[in-house]
Amino acid sequence: MKNGKAMPLHKHNFKAALTYLDKFQFHGFRLGLERMISILNAFGNPEKNYPCLQVAGTNGKGSVSAIIASILHAAGYRTGLYTSPHLSSLRERFKIGNTMISEEELKEQIWRIRDFLERGYELSYFEFTTAIAMVWFAEQGADLVIFETGLGGRLDATNIVTPLVSVITNISLEHQAFLGSSISEIAREKAGIIKKGVPVITGVGEQPALSVILDRCLELNAPVWELGLDFDVKEHGNSRIDYKGKFLKINGLDLALKGTHQATNAGLAIAACERLIEQGFRVTDTAVRNGCRSVYWPGRGELLRGSCGVLLDGAHNLGGLRSLKALLGRLDTVPGDKDRCFHTLLWACSDEGGDKDFVAMLRQIASLFGQIIITEPPGPRVPVTLERWRRSDIPRDVTLEQNWQKALNKALSNCGKEDLLCVAGSLYLVGAVREELMEREFVCI
Q1: 3-class SS at 428?
Q2: Among candidate residues 45, 40, 64, 44, the one with its CA nearest the CA of residue 54
Q3: What is the pLDDT of residue 126?
Q4: What percent of the chain has pLDDT over 70?
Q5: 309-320 CB burial, b ≥16 within 10 A, e <16
């Protein structure tokens, strides 16, 4: 992409830089590594200045990345964390420890990369933000960086790195238009992050995905640890877990994230840290405890309290919704007997590839709610429009409201103090709703 002559940096404010970057969101997904190779070569290959871990998978990769980063930060390492998408601010994607990149730093990085684009380089939006991360972490002197993949693995922009440890959380059907129509094809794309001799941690337990992962590890002589075989985690309820691995055995870990699936994610994260211990990093039991207790990953099973209770969860595929359903089944914030329906679901989803079974997704949890309001998510992704919902086999009577803010107001007005509103289906919707509720003085609980 070529653009007009760049203005001097001091003439641009942060908003102008974001406006420029946002234009790249409409270029769609562009898989492949050649553009990343070119731009990083132009910057002197900053990604080679620090060791890193890479995390892929259908669900949980952001949570695993955040837990690893929290543990390593607690261990005293200057830890970088790159995740996507963000909930409210682009700055969330780039962190050192608990600190996001500043507006000034992010602005400068955007314009620096724009200068290279004017020389004939091309990037997608995700490639642009990944390049920002790799340059910024080098300039910040990171001791270690955790990269969450964006889409797939093999051709993902983050796959330019050779990590110390590769993590593949789980695999289910997603983004079939880009990754393949079968579990085996998707598994091969995820397995593309496996590098020769680099240890692999995986929570993949089902066939044929597991065979694809193990075959790739064997081919590349990459030692692999499997959840339930080489390490294990046991959840006792109330987000308390026991971990047993090769080097660490820690009972009574308090995890800040809610849900049985988060216990699994914590197990994967701790196992990854054990692989780092093998390579000379110092990660103590205390660091693991403090990291698990303090990890911050909003919008994923997050409970808020204001005029009613609100559960925010970014579940946006069938696997994520199964985890959400399990979490809802264990919540004790709603009074009444265990068979009582929760009050309201505010739902939206996107469908970039046009292949998402959005009705099946809604059916996963529809029976848990007395009222369902469907809206269209904000943000750059292609939404499942209300017109598509009208033409579909909706499980039962629902309320359709195109404007998400009006839909939120409608949901809140129908919820009493003891009711629970669940917001799910799209991280973009969750992020927008979360920001709005915080302005209305809702608080995290």
Answers
A1: helix
A2: 64
A3: 95
A4: 91
A5: bbbbbbbbbbbb
Q: What average pLDDT does the chain have?
A: 91
Q: How far apart are the first and last CA of the chain?
A: 45
Place of tokens 């992962």: 213
Sign for the pseudo-dihedral over CA of 21, 151, 381, 119: positive
Contacts of 288 (CB under 8 A, 6+ apart): 71, 74, 243, 248, 250, 253, 270, 273
CB 300 within 8 A of CB 444: no
pTM: 0.93
Chain-centre distance of CA 440, in angstroms?
26
Rounded Cα distance between 422 and 417, Å, is 14
Residue with tokens 């701790």: 270
- Locate all alpha helices (DSSP H) within 238-304, ordered by sequence: 260-278, 285-294
Distance, CA of 149 to CA of 170 (rounded, Å): 13
Q: Which pair of tokens denotes residue 56?
A: 């892929």
Average pLDDT over every residue of 66-84: 99
Tokens of 7: 């203005």
- In order of their start, the domains of the chain are 9-294 (3.40.1190.10), 300-444 (3.90.190.20)
Stretch (H or E) spanning 72: helix 61-74
